[in-house]
Automatic annotation (TrEMBL):
UniProt-listed PANTHER family: 3-OXOACYL-[ACYL-CARRIER-PROTEIN] REDUCTASE, SHORT-CHAIN DEHYDROGENASES/REDUCTASES FAMILY MEMBER
SUPFAM superfamilies according to UniProt: NAD(P)-binding Rossmann-fold domains
EC number: 1.1.1.100
Species of the source: Streptomyces xiangluensis
Pathway in which the depicted protein is active: Lipid metabolism; fatty acid biosynthesis
InterPro entries: 3oxo_ACP_reduc, KR_dom, NAD(P)-bd_dom_sf, Sc_DH/Rdtase_CS, SDR_fam
Quaternary structure note: Homotetramer.
Keyword Lipid biosynthesis: yes
Protein purpose: Catalyzes the NADPH-dependent reduction of beta-ketoacyl-ACP substrates to beta-hydroxyacyl-ACP products, the first reductive step in the elongation cycle of fatty acid biosynthesis.
EC category name: oxidoreductase
Gene Ontology molecular function terms on file: 3-oxoacyl-[acyl-carrier-protein] reductase (NADPH) activity
Protein's name according to its UniProt entry: 3-oxoacyl-[acyl-carrier-protein] reductase
Gene name in the database record: fabG
Length: 234
């Protein structure tokens, strides 16, 4: 059965790989994006998830085209890395507003339809940094760690309605964001990873699609690391 799937921040990197994985499986896929030209082949809706009105309007457009969202992948996020003593309050609060509160906004709105249907799949994209920390990333790590408590609370709250909430925590992934690093920086990162390489976006997408499948119907409140062993034990 073709499902109505929404991937926030689905215009590039991990989000785009996730959107393609669901589309390839025959699902009706909508993506949100903030700027630039969105990729072809999806219902692309411009939406800043820090704005509740834009989130509401995005859902209305998606519901009109695809019906209520049955699978939500909350992927949209930002970074503003800075050492604590140089980090402004705006640097801290704006990252939390997008990564954590923005996820609250899109999940709350999706749950309106999921509660009516008495079923749903929600997957939140966190990070290995949220579990094991990173210097200069106190804001980002706090926002990504917050997703774990958020998902597990909702797994308990809404499990009786057959709505599952799970978290995927990627490690270092080969995307445009990591391609700007120098060869020396990339080499230093790879040395920390037991598998000795970066992940591909498609490897993250495969895990996300599994969690949204019937094969994962008895998994909820889980945090699945896809990090080559980088964060094991955290």
């Amino acid at each position: 059965m073709s499902r109505s799937v929404l991937v926030t921040g689905g215009n590039r990197g991990i989000g785009l790989a996730i959107a393609r994985a669901f589309a390839d499986a025959g699902d009706k896929v909508a993506i949100t994006y903030r700027s630039g030209e969105p990729p072809k082949g999806f219902l692309a809706v411009k939406c800043d998830i820090t704005d509740t009105e834009q989130v509401e309007q995005a859902y209305k457009e998606i519901e009109a085209e695809h019906g209520p969202v049955e699978v939500l992948i909350a992927n949209a996020g930002v970074t503003k890395d800075q050492l604590l003593m140089r980090m402004s309050e705006e640097d801290f609060t704006s990252v939390l507003d997008t990564n954590l509160t923005g996820t609250f906004r899109v999940v709350k709105r999706a749950n309106r339809g999921m509660l009516r249907a008495r079923k749903g799949r929600v997957v939140l994209i966190s990070s290995v940094v949220g579990l094991y920390g990173g210097p200069g990333q106190a804001n980002y790590a706090a926002s990504k760690a917050g997703l774990v408590g958020f998902a597990r609370s909702l797994a308990r709250e809404l499990g009786s309605r057959n709505i599952t909430f799970n978290v995927v925590a990627p490690g270092f992934v080969d995307t445009d964001m990591t391609k700007v690093l120098t060869d020396e920086q990339r080499e230093g990162i790879v040395k920390q990873v037991p598998l000795g390489r970066y992940a591909t976006p498609e490897e993250i997408a495969a895990t996300v699609r599994f969690l949204a499948s019937d094969d994962a119907s008895y998994i909820t409140g889980a945090v699945i690391p896809v990090d080559g062993g980088l964060g094991m034990g955290h």
